[in-house]
Amino acid sequence: MAHVNEARLVDEAARLLVEHGPAGLSLRKVAAAAGVSTMPVYTLFGDKEGLLAAMHREGFRRLGAALAAVPATAEPLADLIELGLAYRRAALSSPHLYGLMFGRTVPQFQPSGADREAADATYQPLVDAVARCQAAGVFGGGDPRRVALHLWAVSHGMVNLELNGQLPELGSAEDLYLEALGYAGLPFLAVG
C-alpha cells in the first residue's frame, strides 16, 4: 500500500476519533470510511494501538516537516516568528491529529519511547531558533530551552484556543496569535 493511502487512513482515523471518541475508532471503521477493504488496514497497523501510534507519528512527522521548511535567514527573530507561524499552520492543517499529539484524546494511549523521542525532536528547532536570537544579541542570555518552553506554551495555548473555537472575537485568529507571540517574547528581548 502506498504512503499516500496510509496518510489517508490516518486522517480518516483521526476524523473518526474526534467525531466518535476512542470507542468509535476501529480498524474496520477506518477501512469503511476510506473505502478500502480491511485487509490492508490490518496489515499496516495490526491493531488499534498500532493505528494510534501511526496517527501520533504522522502528526509529528507533519509538524517536523512544517518546521524544517522554515529557512534560517540573517534575521533570527523573523525566523523565530516564522517557526511559530509554521507551528500554527501545521496544527490547523491536521487538527484531528493535533489532539492526539498533545492531548489526552485517548487516555490509555502511550506512545513508545521511540515515538516520544521523534515527537521531542520537533521541539529542537524552537530551541535552536531561540539560541540564534541569543547569539545575535536579540534575546538576552539564559537557558534557551526555558525561553523556548515559554514561547511554546503561549503558541500551544493560542492554537488550542483557536482549534476549540474559544478565541475571543478581538480580531483575526492569526493577528491574535502574532500578538500573543510578540508579548511572549518581550521579557527575553535584550536591553540596551
Automatic annotation (TrEMBL):
Q: Which domain of life, per UniProt?
A: Bacteria
GO molecular function terms noted in the UniProt entry: DNA-binding transcription factor activity; transcription cis-regulatory region binding
* HTH tetR-type domain ranges (all copies): 3-63
- This protein's UniProt keywords: DNA-binding, Transcription, Transcription regulation
Q: Which residues bind DNA?
A: 26-45
UniProt keyword annotation of Phosphoprotein present? no
Q: Which InterPro entries match?
A: Homeodomain-like_sf, HTH-type_TetR-like_transc_reg, HTH_TetR, MT1864/Rv1816-like_C, Tet_transcr_reg_TetR-rel_C_sf
Alphabetized Pfam families for the sequence: TetR_C_33, TetR_N
Task: Identify the PANTHER family for this entry.
Answer: HTH-TYPE TRANSCRIPTIONAL REGULATOR RUTR (PTHR30055), POSSIBLE TRANSCRIPTIONAL REGULATORY PROTEIN (PROBABLY TETR-FAMILY) (PTHR30055:SF209)
The name of this protein is TetR family transcriptional regulator
